[in-house]
Design brief:
The protein is mainly alpha-helical and 120 residues long. The chain has four helices and four strands; from the N terminus they run E-E-H-E-E-H-H-H.
Amino acid sequence: MSRAVTVMDTAKSTPAVPHHADILSFVKRRKPRGGGIDHWVVSPTGDYDEDCKAGRRLAAEFLTYIGNYPTYGSATLLNLIVHDMIECAKAGKEWGGVHVGFLQEVSGFAMSTAKRYVQR
């Protein structure tokens, strides 16, 4: 589901970090150019189970991105996604399976990582 993009900064010969709107399938640049970023552009099917699966796939996409690009920007990305989820809900879009699946997957990853802290 994620778009493969390879970006190289030839001046430094190190990989540049691609913008998350160019990688994550559920993040889109607003038009006109310079209008910001929509961090939650999803189309639920209405089938709760399928939407939960889709949400988990989107979370895997997100986790892969932040794992590949552990930057300060990536550290704030979840906040931006959840903010836009809430804004969409406030605007009347249904909160449903895609949201639940996404947040469950991210939470499951956080729990497995947190276990390492507890075991220290």
